[in-house]
Design a protein that fits this description.
With about 140 residues, the protein is of the alpha/beta class. The chain has helices spanning about 15-30, 45-50, 55-60, 65-80, 120-140, and strands spanning about 1-5, 35-40, 80-85, 110, 120. Strand 4 (about 110) and strand 5 form a beta hairpin.
Length: about 140
């Protein structure tokens, strides 16, 4: 499954054409590789998270719902499955050993597992975890 982490979507309100382009490329890549698409289920995120006053405008203008809508309908037209997964702890869990710890994220962009030492870009590891969750849930649904 192709996985999209939350920061791969626009962090500010983008014109619909921009989100259409992103959705088209994502769905095209999934179709060409005969993969599905895994997305974080961010429904209700505005109510679940607290941000500083200076960050409220960014949070409330975030175009994740529009991008998700575009990806979902383009994927349906192309016959590409889309799976929404719970984003909880995807960026704190080590994809190598499975260890979950807040300290695995020393900075916003870095990941370094305190147990096994696996290190790299945090968004990349979060995307791996999102994809794995989608595959696990798909297997559960098939059983």
């Amino acid at each position: 499954m192709l996985a999209a982490s939350s920061r791969s979507s626009p962090t500010c309100r983008e014109p619909p054409a921009h989100n259409h382009v992103i959705a088209k490329k994502l769905v095209g890549k999934a179709k060409d590789t005969r993969s599905g698409i895994a997305l974080e289920d961010l429904q209700g995120i505005r109510e679940r998270v607290t941000v500083r006053k200076a960050q409220r405008a960014d949070l409330h203008s975030w175009g994740f719902h529009q991008l998700r809508t575009f990806v979902t309908y383009k994927a349906a037209l192309a016959g590409v499955p889309v799976r929404l997964v719970d984003p909880r702890n995807t960026s704190r869990t080590c994809p190598g050993c499975g260890h979950l710890d807040k300290r695995n994220r020393p900075t916003r962009d870095e990941f370094c597992c305190v147990l096994c030492g696996l290190a790299g870009p945090a968004d990349y590891f979060a995307a791996i975890n999102i994809g794995r969750r989608a595959v696990c849930h798909a297997a559960d649904d098939a059983a």
